[in-house]
Design goal:
By secondary structure, the protein is an alpha+beta fold. The protein has helices spanning 7-16, 38-57, 73-78, 81-84, 101-108, 119-128, 172-177, 179-185, 231-249, 295-304, 330-341, 369-384, 397-407, 417-422, 443-450, and strands at 20-22, 34-36, 62-64, 86-91, 98-100, 145-148, 152-154, 164-166, 192-201, 216-226, 257-261, 272-279, 282-291, 310-312, 317-319, 322-329, 342-345, 348-351, 362-366, 389-391, 411-415, 424-429, 435-439. It folds into three domains: 7-81 and 153-341, 2-Layer Sandwich (BirA Bifunctional Protein, domain 2), CATH 3.30.930; 86-148, Herpes Virus-1, CATH 3.30.40; 360-450, Anticodon-binding domain (Rossmann fold, 3-Layer(aba) Sandwich), CATH 3.40.50. Bound molecules: zinc ion (ZN).
Length: 451
């Protein structure tokens, strides 16, 4: 069994087998946008359902919300995104390319970390080291300007500042601004958590590595509100919870995962780390666990003038709780799963997804169309009550098995002439290609037990 070292192999599989298509494909696309196809949406939904189950439904004292993408502009003033969420960009006068100054430096000098440098320092470095435009080869740069990463739009018909709103660049603020609403409505006592899954948008110009970096993406975020003295213990809990979710629930190989602590912490944080996956293009962040102090709630309290304090009925004290954030990128996890599951086994391609994640759990195949499709369709419809099932009656049986292996279907149920005589079918398993004869009536239990 071999794993792939080339992301293009995965991109190609995604396109040809209906996982992911280039966004706006018939109009030559829109950079860094993608559409999830019929198989992609099934896998994506399963990732989200499993996360929701583990981080919201089965997580002690946690509830979910589904906040709006559009919010009052002040949400992003309080969060700091209006003033500080920007990239340092400069234009090449030769070819009009717009580039990120820090990335340009880091690509030319991989040992340098230009993160957090101010505009002057970036420009000086570019000039002193004679860094030329990677597109046209000239060195004729404009000054560096900070370019806000939020997509902005206008509410109503006027285009003035009071009508300006943003597509949210992260989902977390919904949980913060609804903290009091949720706590009161659900009568929750600290520690409690709020989880949310939803789209976020960032106007980034950096090239994407397929769905790793996109301008529209989906996040799964859980914010735990707790006492400050419990926060570091909860932070460790959420790191472990994340590791268990990735390795046990999603089945990602532990050797392709690592935690990386942040070297520099923002002033309000006591701890922060990323979980990274080893993609074909290198290690990339798929999750962040962050101690956020009381920063978010107190910023909203200050700007809104509304109290964000929790009243502790036991100690009779009022305080702003500390937040532990667990943030997961759905699209990045999706890509990690495909890279991890992709195997070449002789002349077949096998997507070794866990059965609970596979777009189809079962495929029903009549060995011969004319005489067997009626029985096969009956079995197909019955299995649909229990699993996501596909049906394939075209081509040789070997080719059909290979097609299912390639999209990760763990079980193939084959209907042959013996089925008509004794009511049994062949169940073929994806990873071992082993075949077992099973009674039709026993199929749901047999497959459920093996999942
Ligand atoms: Zn240029």
């Amino acid at each position: 069994m071999k794993k792939t070292e080339n992301i293009n192999t995965i991109i190609n599989l995604c396109k040809t087998r209906g996982f992911i298509f280039a966004g706006s494909d018939i109009y030559d696309g829109l950079a860094n946008t993608w559409d999830y196809g019929p198989l992609g949406v099934e896998l994506k939904n399963k990732i989200k359902q499993l996360w929701w189950k583990e981080f919201v439904l089965e997580n002690h004292n946690s509830v979910g919300i589904d906040g709006g993408i559009l919010m009052n502009r002040n949400v992003w003033v309080a969060s700091g995104h209006v003033s500080g969420f920007s990239d340092p960009l400069m234009d090449c006068r030769g070819c009009k390319s717009r580039l990120r100054a820090d990335k340009l430096i880091e690509e030319k000098f991989p040992d340098v970390s230009a993160d957090g440098w101010d505009n002057q320092r970036l420009l000086d470095y570019v000039n002193q080291h004679d860094i030329k435009c990677p597109v046209c080869g000239k060195r004729d740069w404009t000054d560096i300007r900070q370019f806000n990463l939020m997509f902005e739009t206008y509410r109503g018909v006027t285009k003035d500042n009071s009508a300006q709103i943003f597509l949210r660049p992260e989902t977390a603020q919904s949980e913060y601004i609804n903290f009091i609403n949720v706590q009161r409505a659900m009568r929750l006592k600290i520690p409690f958590g709020i989880g949310q899954i939803g789209k976020a948008f960032r106007n980034e110009i950096t090239p994407g590595n397929f769905i790793f970096r996109t301008i529209e993406f989906e996040q799964m975020e859980h914010q735990l509100f707790c006492k400050d003295e419990d926060a570091l213990r909860e932070y460790q809990n959420y790191k472990q919870k994340t590791l268990a979710f990735y390795t046990q629930t999603l089945g990602i190989s532990p050797e392709n995962l690592r935690f990386r602590d942040h070297e520099k912490l923002v002033f309000y944080a006591k701890a922060a780390c990323d979980a990274e996956y080893l993609f074909p293009f290198g290690w990339g962040e798929i999750n962040g666990t962050h101690h956020r102090g009381i920063h978010d709630l107190s910023s909203h309290q200050k700007l809104s003038g509304k109290s964000m304090e929790y009243f502790d009925p036991i100690t009779n004290q009022k305080f702003i709780p500390t937040v532990i954030e667990s943030s997961h990128g759905v699209d990045r996890i999706f890509l990690a799963l495909l890279c991890d599951a992709y195997h070449i086994d002789g002349d077949r391609t096998v997507l070794k997804l866990k059965p609970s994640l596979a777009p189809y759990t079962v495929c029903v195949l009549p060995l011969q169309k004319k005489d067997l499709s009626e029985t096969a369709e009956k079995i197909f419809r019955n299995l649909q009550k229990h699993f996501s099932v596909s049906y394939d009656e075209s081509g040789s049986i070997g080719k059909r098995y290979f097609r299912q292996d390639e999209i990760g279907t763990p079980f193939c149920v084959t209907i042959d002439y013996d089925t008509l005589k004794d009511g049994t079918v062949t169940v073929r398993e994806r990873d071992t290609t082993e075949q077992t004869r099973i009674k039709i009536a026993d199929l749901p239990k047999y497959i459920t037990d093996k999942q």
